[in-house]
TrEMBL record, chain A:
GO terms for biological process: respiratory electron transport chain. Belongs to the cytochrome b561 family. GO terms for molecular function: electron transfer activity; heme binding; metal ion binding. It comes from Phyllobacterium brassicacearum. This is Cytochrome b. Its main location: membrane. Keywords: Cell membrane, Electron transport, Heme, Iron, Membrane, Metal-binding, Transmembrane, Transmembrane helix, Transport. The chain crosses the membrane at residues 12-35, 47-67, 88-110, 148-170. One of its GO terms (cellular component) is plasma membrane.
């Protein structure tokens, strides 16, 4: 139940997937909004929430990667052709990389800003600044990188979501169900 | 009553005696009664502040524009007063973005509240050359008690300088943005120079 098998995702993998996925998408929406609000007080607060959740994504993703390495990967459905497999796996790799690179570039934004606003994760833990150049230009570079990589990853995530829905509603296989329940592979609908 | 900082504690006779003994420059001029009078706060004064942040460091700056008067009553220091006004628009931190944030409606809202005022309500001598200045600080339309400690720093025939320090809880004035990352406590460290008017 907790661990993956060759046929199903375990509960831990399922929780990692949805918790990180929802926070990540929420972060993209929050990031988009926070740079557009005009109220400085609200904006300051939104930035701090964004930084806190960003470090949460980074920390959870590190644990998730360790868990992934320690667990088998459920097989792809038989009916997937090689192009579909390559596309799916490429999307997974990009999304995994995004879970690390996007928060890290966000960390670089906070670290390079001349404002040097501390990151006080959920008002509990002070996160140190990365030892990188501090300047307006460096901050602008990292902020642009952070935003574009995040939006790019959102496009890939959209493809990932559409593909899952395609599997569920058109191909009527268990791809989506097995990411919702560890027992889906046995009790879910059968493909083929 | 007036505010500023701690001007008064110095006035005590013992303090003056010590002052006379150790500062030849002023020794000739002073008697206790000499310091009584009304003083204008000079632009050469310095109104500095710091706000610490988690993990060390913080924001340090000063206000460039301010004005005020104080009256010293050397025979009864408690009858001395101070009134002080500073203009938050003049805040300076060396970082333009920090300054514009401080001026904005997130902090000082200097467009709508162009002044921050302090009026002393009670001045109490605490030693030969120190005093406690209690008063009402008004910022962003909110008034709340604030206390400062004044130390006599320098003293001439027509001028007197106090080092004034105090801690202000910014949350009392609707300026608690950024807490707890940035401390709620603003530490003031001022050199207040008065010229006899």
């Amino acid at each position: 139940m907790l661990r993956n098998s060759r046929d199903s995702f375990g509960l831990v993998s399922i929780l990692f997937h949805w918790v990180i996925g929802l926070i990540f998408l929420g972060q993209i929406a929050l990031g988009y909004l926070m740079v557009r609000v005009s109220d400085f007080t609200l904006q300051f607060s939104l930035y701090q929430w964004h930084k806190s959740f960003g470090f949460l994504v980074l920390g959870l993703s590190a644990l998730r990667l360790l868990w992934k390495l320690a667990n088998p990967r459920p097989r792809d459905p038989e009916h997937m052709n090689s192009l579909e497999r390559v596309a799916a796996h490429a999307a997974h790799v990009i999304l995994y990389l995004s879970l690390f690179i996007v928060p890290l570039t966000g960390w670089a934004v906070a670290s390079s800003s001349p404002l040097q606003i501390p990151t006080f994760m959920f008002n509990l833990v002070v996160i140190p600044q990365l030892p990188i150049t501090i300047s307006d230009a460096a901050e602008a570079f990292w902020a642009a990188s952070h935003a574009w990589l995040a939006y790019l990853s959102a496009v890939v995530a959209a493809g990932h979501i559409l593909a899952a829905l395609h599997h569920h509603f058109w191909k009527r296989d268990t791809i989506l169900m097995r990411m919702l329940s560890p027992s889906a592979a046995k009790t879910g609908r059968n493909v083929n | 009553m007036k505010t500023t900082d701690m001007l008064f504690s110095t006035l005590i006779p013992a303090g003056l005696a010590a002052l006379l003994a150790f500062s030849p420059m002023t020794a000739r001029a002073d008697t206790l009664s000499d310091v009584s009078g009304r003083y204008n706060i000079q632009p050469s004064s310095r109104v500095g502040f710091t706000v610490t942040q988690v993990g060390g460091g913080g924001i340090a700056g000063n206000f460039k524009k301010f004005s005020g008067v104080f009256s010293l009553n050397s025979s009864d220091i408690s009858r001395s007063t101070i009134s002080f006004t500073l203009y938050p628009e003049s805040v300076s931190t060396g970082q333009a973005r920090v300054e514009s944030f401080l001026r904005s409606d997130a902090v000082f809202d200097s467009a709508n509240f162009p002044t921050i005022t302090f009026k002393s309500t009670q001045i109490k001598q605490t030693s030969a050359d120190t005093a406690e200045v209690a008063g009402i600080l008004t910022a962003r339309g909110k008034s709340s008690p604030a206390n400062f400690q004044a130390n006599l720093a320098d003293h001439g025939k027509n001028s007197i300088t106090f080092r004034v320090q105090g801690k202000v809880m910014r949350s009392r004035y609707g300026m608690d943005v950024g807490t707890p990352i940035y401390s709620n406590v603003v530490q003031f460290d001022m050199m207040i120079r008065g010229q006899r008017s």
